[in-house]
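Now for today's protein:

——
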Amino acid sequence: MSRRPAPAPSLNAVVPALPTQRGQRDTRPVPDLPASLTAALPSVEIPHDMLRHLHTLVPCKGLRAGQTLFAEGQVPQAFYLVADGEIEARFMSEGGDTSTLERMRFPRLFGLAAFVTQRPARYEAAALTDSRVWLITQPAYRWLMDECPGFARALMLEFARRFEGNLGLLGAARHDSAEQRLRLALRQLVRERGIAGADPEWQTITATQLELARSAHLSRQTVNALLATAETQGWLRRQYRQLSVKLDGLP
């Protein structure tokens, strides 16, 4: 009898199982790296003949809830792509208090500025839940920029959009009303992390009042009052740590 050839190994199989608690292994399927990159940078498609090399360059790191990925003042040796879970970017005061800058979920890219400039990070990144991130180190960064079609342009576009959004928020802080600033902050959050539901007119985002207040340059009390008004007007719904926003309610 002829022997049936063994099936080809999955490309994900080259990524090792992730450590969890001492003596245990994370048995969840490893997230799909090419799909993660395409979700973060929609114009990028990794050619099939480059996939195996991509997996050897970009490891997936597991983080327990509460574990720090990098500290404020540390020079990161990679930038990161959230594979699953939730990562919080936060400032630390001298007294040890924290202020949330952003909560990041799949497929958020972060940490690029400190990584590329090799300057100390201005914030701390820590896992809010058990999470996994892809680590794009120097060898992977150089290979993606030099060899992967469209990656450099897509990365530049992504961070140009963020810069434009930040400039818009700074300009709004000087000239716009509180309501306009809140709507602009919500629009940027929807663009960065909005999730469509059954009704395509609505998008759901994960954000706290403190995060909105920082983005809109408003007090938490003002943000709370404006969110209540938006609910009354019918273009916003509040849930625990989440907001659903009707797109035609944004500027």
The longest helix spans residues 151-175. The CA atoms of residues 181 and 216 lie 5 Å apart. The chain has two domains: 11-154, 177-249. Confidence is low (pLDDT under 50) at residues 1-23.
